[in-house]
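Lecture notes, unit on protein representations.

Consider one protein chain, 168 amino acids long.
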Amino acid sequence: MTLEVADAVARGYARRYRWADPADLAQEARAAVLAALRTFDPGRGTPPTAYARAAARRALWGYVNALRAPVSNRHRPGDLASIPTAADVDALPLEGPDGNATAEAADLARRVRALLAPLEWDVLVAGVSPAAAATAYGLPVAKVYAALAAARRRLRADPALQEHAKTA
């Protein structure tokens, strides 16, 4: 019964994501259901089909997103070595409108680098997607989003950056 639920969820994903291989979707859904049934507790009151359906959906959502990521313009986890680091940015000239490096621009760049952790830098400055950063750093995506929210709050609260935003 639960494997039929897995197949039904896989068929739904195959209709929605026509570019994904239906056999792979069915295999992923079945594997997720079999793994989830090991932890199923009938005493909690959840029907086994609902538990299996939720497990299959979670697994297929992750599978489809993993397949879709390389197609997008986002960085893949293997590309993290090619993105600019804080040291690379130190080497870049910070030029003003007249072509000369300005002390204010250099100070602001140093300020932002000091406020951001490497994960936050990768996503906010280098353009790595939160999902790719989560995979590369071995974190859940929710933790990456929480770290980004905290980083944005720190950036908004910094007096020097607030002053620059008012004048810009």
